[in-house]
User: What shape does this take?
Amino acid sequence: MKYILSIFAIVITLSACNNNAKEEAIMKQKAIAAVKDSLKLDSFRRVEEKKKQDEIVAARVREEKRTLLLSERNDAAPAPRQYSEETPAKKKGWSEAAKGTAIGAGAGALGGALIDKKKGRGAIIGGVVGAGAGYLIGRDKDRKSGRVQPKN
Assistant: This one.
């Protein structure tokens, strides 16, 4: 009977150890799964926090743009006119564009008459081309000198 009880005690001990190993393995798997889940939750929290920070930054940028636009509107508003007795002196004489047109037309007509066999046709074509080129050159000079305001 001692043998049977000792064998029975050994079997119970081995089965208990075997169950403990299985239980430990299951517990380890559950612990690993819990850690992975917590890491996922942590990464979701980080993403949510980053989105909140991005929204805050975007709101700041929008506010800064709005204030800049308002300040530009205030700066761009025309100043109240101050009427005075003095009138600005107008520039006298021909503009550079007019001078360029006249000189270009004369030079083009002379060149066209010399080049073309039919003098009249060559003079007309050369005069028109020369006047156009002279006007463009003179207009550029007027813009640089400030007589004509450049286009925006």
In short: DSSP finds three helices and no strands in the chain. The CA atoms of residues 14 and 20 lie 10 Å apart. The mean pLDDT is 81.
